[in-house]
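@channel sequence for tomorrow's demo:
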Amino acid sequence: LRMLSHKDLRYVMDHFDGKKELKEVIQAASEAEVKDDFTASTSVLQAPGLAVLTRFSRLELIDPTADAAVFGDANLTFGIKLAKHRKALGHVGRVIATTFEELETLRERYKEIDDSIALLEDHFAEVHHGVDCTKIALNPNFKGL
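structure tokens (generated this afternoon):
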């Protein structure tokens, strides 16, 4: 059971009642398809099941619908880690990653910057460049936040 994915372990927990052999239920789990209903129970389906399920039973200190912002993340590596982490936890709030420098400057400094931006956008994160966080209230991108 420790080796099952999140999808398969959740299936076994929902369907094993002792009437069938555990091996049969595990086999059925591997063949079962899960419709994504955009809840935490259908997120990170291929991640290790035990790790995901133990995460669900912990006290959640951060509202999973809350937004998160990273200011001044020059090469965007922290924003990427945050976006991946929140996705793995089933969090659905926005991730906003900003850089102080403009994109042209970042391209000179970080050869991977376009890939980093694409990865963030694949995780539905917003990326803004040329953001001075000491004047965030004046930036139209952040009005109303």
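heads up for whoever presents: The first helix runs from residue 6 to 15.
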